[in-house]
Amino acid sequence: MNADEIKVKVRELLQQLSKDDQTLFAKAIRAEQDKLHMGNPYGIIDDLEAIVRGVVK
Amino acid sequence: MILDVLTLHNFRQYYGTQKIYFSQDKIRNITVIHGENGSGKTALLGALGWCLFGESNLPDKEDIICERAAAEAAPGAELEAYIKVQFKDDAKSYFVTRRVRARKRNNGELEYSPATMELEYIDETGETKAPKNPQDTIDQIIPADLRSYFFFDGERIDNLTKKEGVKDIRKAIKIMMGLEILERGEKHLEQLRKTFRDESVRSGSTQAQDLGKDIRDLESQITAKDSERDNLLKNGEALDNTLTQVRDQLRSLEDSREAQTRKDELLAIEQQIKGKITEVRKKLRTSASKRGYLAFCADLIESTRTTLNDKREKNEIPSGLKQQFVDDLLDRGECICGTTLTPGTGAHDCVSAWRKRASSKELEDAFIELTGDVKVLEQDRPRLFEELQRLQGEKVAFHQSLKETQEELSQLKAQLEGRDVEEVAALARRERELEDLRRDTYQAIGRVQGEMDSLETHKKKKEGALKDLKAQDAKAELARRRMTSCENVKNTIGSILEVQSAYVQDRLQEKISDVYSKMLRKGYEVVIDENYMLSVFKVMGEHRLPVRMSQGERQITSLAFIGALVDIAREQYEREKERSVYFKGGYYPIVMDSPFGQLDEDHQERIASGIPGLAQQIIVMVSSSQWSESVAKGMQPFVGREYTLDYKSPEVDRSTQFEYTAVKEGKHA
Predict the structure, then answer these.
(1) Which positions ≥6 away from B553 have C-beta within 8 Å?
(2) Hey, what's the torsion of the CAs at B272, B278, B281, B286, to 10 degrees?
(3) B30, B622 in Cβ contact below 8 A?
(4) Given an 8 Å threshold on Cβ–Cβ distance, is A57 in contact with B478?
(5) For all residues of chain B together, what is the average pLDDT?
(6) Predicted ipTM?
């Protein structure tokens, strides 16, 4: 697969998620990104838990 | 990240304030820093590492302040040394300063205070900001784990092709290619999924609570098995390393070198044959599971064909008369012979009766389709047997050649064990013991993995049953929805990770092969496996044999790897206008200290012409002996800026009392 095919494939995978789950995906990845520099990302589970509780009500 | 300026103030042998402006030209992308041994090339690399990450690979790390500056200061005076790095990243300009202060005691010693770090950046709007945690910001631009790939000592980078380097490589690739973030996301969402599952169980019925307990028990068992497997894997790895050492020793001894070299070849061939056998077995399994029914449907094909022929012979299917034709006659109210067809008349009844004998379009289509299917089945059946026979033949041939290889290996091992030279015989015996232990260990790993898989299946069943239970109340229902969302997103991340990992591996393989073929003289093949382990092979007939590389060759391989990584990150950055959340890519500079140290002239020339294309920005530090005619020829057209480290020492210059270095623009003798 080339880069464009990968992009399409990833988009397809994301579109299979519900709107709420798509929001959750984007927010979860961003939370991981913020702590990517930390070898042991302290507090990440709490961050993700807050995200899930905020998105899925 | 593109480096703008490096400012050194009283750092190590750099006296006063010295500045280096790095080339940012896209074509003339190289900055060359000339300096003889001891003039401070490695200290420059250390300065970058110290400023950005607070660490340097320099000896006497605590002696940061320049000796001359310290000597010239009066007792009690305050001194400082700092490194300032100015760089751009993603449309922002960064200014990082790491500073250390010291007070000169009466006895001349320096009393250091802890070093401090300051960071400011100007964002896209022109606003200046100072992040609260400067190190975190820097680590997000270049994670410390990746430092050694971008700021490296050319004479020490050969470890990327050694087994010890695998973990570093894997980590670097995962971070740079956006895989690490996906892996972490998948892992953390799984942990969270369990949290919400337990929450839903707590608010659930007794049955739900029982299931929850069973699941947690199974998870404890899986965790125990996982740690057992990890220990076994560590043992396996240790055995592999010891085995490699024993084989290296056998290869280094005059009395066993030849036999060991042949053994190495045979071991590689043995692995390849085993791989081919696994492949054939897989093909056999696929054929049997997808088309195996053909082997058992001969009677069915025959009886269907007979039935269809029988119907055809009786003119029942397809009928000579079409139902649509009879319907058209009745609608028109006139027969083909001209008789009027009025309902209730004998002529109408007679034609209507033909309608029953005519066949429908659906029936005819089904007949044609079935006839076609029977033909396909009849043709496919012998093809299946041919394929199975061919694969079986290949399997037998591979087993035969495996047997021959193993026999030769066994003979060689026996020969070595029986040698008169005790050292050789002892090593050969040790090798056999280690091989036995290794086999047992890997068998145990397989067994534990099987047990884990079985526990996982059991757990999934229980979780399925838990999901099927009706939620007791709104709280349990909400927890369950949250659990499902975590599961959905986790599974999607897992699928993206799979697709992205395969892409990264293919792309890396392509890039490394490309860079490698330009840099290395011999016709070697470089392969990166699914664990991102770099291996180099030479092709001999139908077998690929592992190459024992010289230090220079390992250096080139590592350089090709770094170049490939940097290039993929650049491509991604330039391609993506809308930045992917997890794989942004970016520009990375490569800073190399003495990259030509271990290379012969031909390879120096190849590397020199390959270096300009490795990254957006290249900084090379070389001594005059390394800046040979062939290196200069390959690199000079791409040199945008040049500096010389002017080293003064009382041993060669009596006008100075201390050794120190000044940076001069241009190339000076």
Answers:
(1) B520, B524, B536, B547
(2) -120
(3) no
(4) yes
(5) 87
(6) 0.98
Chain-chain contact of A17 with B492 (C-beta, under 8 angstroms): yes
In chain A, the residue whose alpha carbon lies closest to the alpha carbon of B575 is A3
* Cβ-count burial B352-388 (b if 16+ within 10 Å, e if not): eeeeeebbeeeebeebeeebeebeebeeebeebeeeb
C-alpha distance from A15 to closest chain B C-alpha (Å): 10
Helix, strand, coil percentages (3-state) for chain B, rounded to 5, are 60, 15, 25
DSSP B492: H
Chain A CB contacts of B503 under 8 Å are: 1, 3, 6
Q: Using 50, 70 and 90 to split pLDDT, how confident is the model at B155?
A: low
What one-letter code names the amino acid at B544? R
Helix or strand run (H / E) with residue B645: strand B639-648
B-chain residues near A54 (CB < 8 A): none
Dihedral sign computed on CA atoms, order B538, B540, B545, B549: negative
Separation of alpha carbons B660 and B649, rounded Å? 7
Q: Which stretches of chain A sit within 8 Å of chain B by CB? A: 1, 3, 6, 9-10, 13-14, 16-18, 20-21, 24-26, 28-30, 32-33, 36-39, 41, 44-45, 48-49, 52-53, 55-57
- Nearest to B301, CA basis, from B224, B385, B381: B381
**Contact at CB, A56 and B500, closer than 8 angstroms:** no
Amino acid at B211: L
Residue B11: name the closest of B87, B74, B79, B103 by CA: B79
DSSP 8-state assignment for residue B635: H
Place of tokens 């953390």: B188
Best interface-test mutation with B: which of A16, A33, A53 has the largest number of B CBs within 10 A? A33
Two tokens, residue B129: 């900001």
Burial of residue B249 (number of CB atoms within 10 Å: 0-12, 13-18, 19+): middle
DSSP code for B221: H
pTM for the full predicted model = 0.70
Q: Collapse the DSSP code of B662 into the 3-class scheme (helix H, G, I; strand E, B; otherwise coil) and give the result.
A: strand
Residue with tokens 């009066």: B74
pLDDT at B63: 81
Please write the tens of the pLDDT for every residue from B423-481: 999 999 999 999 999 999 999 999 999 999 999 999 999 998 988 887 778 888 899 99
Closest CA of chain A from B543, distance in Å: 28
**Which residues in chain B have Cβ-Cβ distances shorter than 8 Å to A24?**
485-486, 489
* Residue A37, pLDDT score: 76
Q: Which of B85, B32, B49 is nearest to B595 (CA)?
A: B32
Look at residue B359 in the predicted model and tell me its pLDDT.
Answer: 67
Q: DSSP letter string over B264-293?
A: HHHHHHHHHHHHHHHHHHHHHHHHHHHHGG
Q: Give the span between the Cα atoms of B263 and B257, in whole angstroms.
A: 10
Q: Which residue has the tokens 């290794």?
A: B438
The residue count for chain B:
669
d(CA B128, CA B93): 9
A33 to chain B: which residues are within 8 Å by CB?
Answer: 181, 581-582
| A49, closest residue in chain B (CA to CA) | B192
| Inter-residue contact B3 to B619 (CB < 8 Å) | yes
Is B138 in contact with B121 (CB distance < 8 Å)? Answer: no
User: How does pLDDT run across B602-628, given as a tens digit for each residue?
Assistant: 888 888 888 888 888 999 999 888 888
Residues 6+ apart with CB under 8 A from B318: B312, B359, B364, B367, B368
Put simply, the answer to whether A17 touches B143 (Cβ < 8 Å) is no
Interface A–B counts its CB contacts (< 8 A) at 95
Query: 3-class SS at B549?
Result: coil
